[in-house]
Design brief:
single chain; seven-stranded mixed beta sheet; OB fold (Dihydrolipoamide Acetyltransferase, E2P); alpha/beta
């Protein structure tokens, strides 16, 4: 037993560093590590053998990461011909595929790609094989502090590419059994109001869940119930176990064996995992279940912590990149929290003797309180908030989903084709889901956005349990009070009294949003882009402001184009009192014209363009603002183009000097003329750009022009969020990819300059 637990610890210690490495070493370095491990293994000391296992596991993690990066190096620069199997599709224009060969050569391991907005010539379904000519685009996500890390997510999902399909030819038109099953269920449930939720629970197909339903699940803290994960796989295993036990009732006594229900439970869980499309959380749950079965068959009693460690080690050996997955950490820490809670805070024995209608609600309430308290740190870190109504919602929702909806759903899957019975089973599932959503809708909006100051305080749940169980409040009362006060103090903002401030260019894709920060207050220049169903403020700016506990006071909209004003309405809904300046002459907007001056937080703002008359619109009507603290100066230019640049230079050559310039018009050839660059005579140029944009910005010629004039070039596509820390005449630029969070999975993958 000790050897097994020691082995599990070595596996985990060896693979965990994959989360924080800044780069993955070359293959020869990995080979050298394995040689070192073999040498350590021959040293006749137990610790050396454990060290050898750690090094081997570390090498395996590096090799897996190296394999995930290999396609970027080989196939990202030009169109390639691939053969792929369709794994998921909406039957229209959004498809997920598994690449099995490239340029006629089979590959291993295979990898996944996503294609959006592509209609294929023939009907498409999961299981088909296609030969395609595709342009593979390495995953690239917007990168902001506290924002969703789409690059890490894509690598954890083993889907490192998006694809633009140039041509496609169907090799096999046969759909998979799962696709036929899905089609059958879609047909039976077509008229049911909650079909989208049913398909999410049965097959992991969540595209049919409406935004309103997703928002209600999020606010009530019950979204985890609608994603096939460990709980659902365990329920399927339980159903398989029960069916096997029922079947054993017909067996003679000498034919009854305890292994049969265990094996049946694993088979049932495997079938449900397959129906879920083999999504990573379901696969991880299945691996854990198999490990538990193997341990159970050893014929000895294993503690919860031992099983937990073995499951983590088994999952990481199977897939080292699981350490990059938030859902992995949520799952394993949820299990750890449950083990810890039941060991350290068990219910009184009197509850076990209470009547069943009192006992079981108390059991459920006790469970939900433990989950809420102990998972709060991870909830805040990942989701930047908690649901205040989650306790009450889950007390109702968990038993309803676990003991009613999922068993009925599994019966519906088996009996879909049964006349009358199949339809009525799905109708019953729909009615119970309607009951659930009706109850959830009666709860108040319980979602509470929490900023990063509360991360330390959220650990109080764990500490309270330890303090209570060890009676530390009696023996070390002063220490306990001091600890709690120190945690509470972490939530208090301490504003700096010096002259320091920050300029942050957020990574909003194609668009612009620059935040000037001083004493916890924010002045925002432009608000990013908007698109059907969302905007940059909802996706990036507001979550970033909330996470950093910043208060927005003023906004400048440089001009009327959507990629610069797209998030304004969302910001005004969040902060109705913000002051808006622009050259648009819109109602409620203060003027932003040449000659305007104002102060904010001791910073001086001077508008250099456009003139009040004649009226300028479009890019050349951009409000150009010089911001200065008396030492440091930054020029904010919007999308101003060469014509307006030259007009602005007349009689104002001297006042345009700045340390940093925001590159006009995202680095377009129509802007950033040499006269402007000489007049500004700055040190650095910051451009807000998006990788794979349709306009091929920034222009290579413009980048070289800045560099030839002595500027250091930065852009958000390459660097992610850019932060300038300013203190009097000293300032420093930090990029999120290179300085703030240099991780191997944050790097720019593929060719060095790919902006089209």
């Amino acid at each position: 037993m000790n050897n097994l637990i020691g082995l599990c610890f070595c596996i985990i210690i060896g693979i965990i560093p994959l989360m924080v490495l800044p780069a993955i070493p070359a293959g020869n370095v990995i080979a050298a590590l394995l040689v070192i491990a073999l040498c350590l293994a021959f040293i006749p000391f137990r610790l050396m053998r454990f060290a050898a296992i750690i090094v081997i596991c570390f090498g395996w993690a590096l090799f897996s990461a190296r394999q995930s990066l290999m396609p970027f190096e080989r196939w990202a620069a030009k169109p390639v011909v691939v053969e792929a199997t369709v794994t998921r599709t909406d039957g229209k224009q959004n498809h997920e595929l598994q690449i099995i060969s490239v340029e006629g050569k089979s590959i291993f391991p295979t990898f996944g790609i996503r294609s959006q907005g592509t209609y294929l010539a023939e009907s498409v379904c999961a299981g088909q094989r296609w030969r395609m000519k595709v342009l593979l685009r390495p995953v690239h996500g917007q990168l902001n502090e506290g924002g969703f890390d789409s690059q890490r997510y894509a690598l954890a999902q083993h889907q490192p590419f998006s694809a633009r399909i140039i041509s496609a030819q169907q090799i096999s038109e046969k759909c998979s059994l799962r696709a036929h099953w899905l089609t059958a269920v879609e047909g039976v449930t077509e008229s049911l109001p909650y079909q989208g939720v049913i398909l999410a629970l049965a097959f992991g197909e969540r595209s049919g869940v409406s935004d309103e339903q997703k928002n209600l699940l999020r606010q009530s803290g019950t979204a985890h119930l609608m994603a096939i994960s460990g709980m659902h796989i365990s329920l399927a295993a339980m159903v398989g176990w029960l069916l096997a036990r029922l079947l054993q009732l017909s067996f003679p006594a000498h034919r009854i064996h305890y292994r049969m229900p265990l094996i049946a439970s694993v088979i049932a869980a495997g079938v449900y995992t397959w129906l879920a499309g083999g999504n990573p959380p379901a696969v991880r749950a299945l691996i854990g279940l198999n490990i538990w079965l193997l341990l159970k068959l050893q014929g000895r009693s294993w503690s919860g912590w031992e099983v937990w460690l073995c499951c983590i080690a088994g999952i990481l050996i199977y897939d080292p990149l699981a350490v990059l997955s938030d859902s992995f950490w949520l799952s394993i820490l949820a299990v750890a929290a449950l083990i810890f809670w039941y060991q350290w805070m068990p219910l009184p024995r009197s509850v076990a003797t209470a009547r069943w209608f009192c006992r079981y609600p108390l059991y459920l309430l006790h469970l939900q309180i433990g989950i809420m308290l102990l998972l709060m740190p991870l909830q805040i870190f990942i989701f930047h908030g908690i649901s205040l109504s989650a306790l009450f919602a889950n007390v109702f929702a968990v038993p309803l989903i676990s003991f009613v909806v999922v068993p009925l759903l599994l019966a519906g899957l088996v009996l879909t084709h049964a006349p009358w019975l199949g339809e009525h089973l799905w109708w019953a599932v729909d009615r119970f889901l309607a009951l659930l959503f009706n109850v959830l809708s009666l709860l108040p909006d319980g979602w509470l956005t929490v900023d990063r100051r509360f991360q330390a305080l959220s650990l109080s749940g764990w500490l309270i349990v330890v303090i209570h169980r060890l009676s530390l409040w009696r023996s070390s009362f002063v220490s306990v009070v001091a600890l709690m006060l120190s945690l509470a103090a972490s939530t208090m903002r301490v504003d700096k009294k010096d002259d320091s401030w920050q300029v942050v260019m957020l990574d909003v894709g194609h668009g612009l949003a620059i935040a000037l920060i001083r004493q916890g207050k924010v002045f925002l220049y432009d608000t990013g882009n908007a698109w059907p169903g969302g905007d940059a403020a909802q996706q990036v700016i507001i979550p970033w402001l909330r996470w950093h506990h910043l208060s927005l006071e003023q906004v400048v909209i440089s001009h009327e184009h959507l990629d610069h004003r797209g998030g304004l309405n969302s910001l005004q809904r969040e902060w109705p009192a913000i002051k808006v300046r622009s050259p648009l002459r819109w109602a409620g907007h203060n003027p932003c014209f040449q000659g305007e001056k104002w102060q904010w937080q001791k910073l001086q703002f001077t508008v250099l363009w456009p003139p009040v008359s004649p009226t300028s619109t479009g890019n050349n009507g951009s409000c150009v603002v010089m911001v200065s603290d008396g030492h440091f100066r930054i020029l904010l230019t919007g999308d101003v183009e060469a014509e307006a640049e030259l007009a602005m230079l007349k009689r104002r050559w001297g006042i345009l000097h700045a340390d940093i310039i925001q590159v006009p018009h995202h680095g377009s050839r129509t802007s950033s003329g040499a006269p402007l660059l000489r007049a500004v005579a700055g040190t650095a140029a910051l451009a807000s750009t998006s990788r794979y944009n349709a306009w091929h910005l920034p222009s290579g010629k413009v980048v070289k022009r800045y560099q030839s004039q002595g500027y250091t070039w930065y852009d958000t596509a390459q660097s992610g969020q850019l932060t300038i820390d300013i203190n009097s005449d000293k300032w420093q630029i930090n990029s999120l990819r290179a300085q703030i969070s240099p991780r191997w999975y944050h790097q720019w993958f593929g060719v060095s300059r790919d902006n089209g």
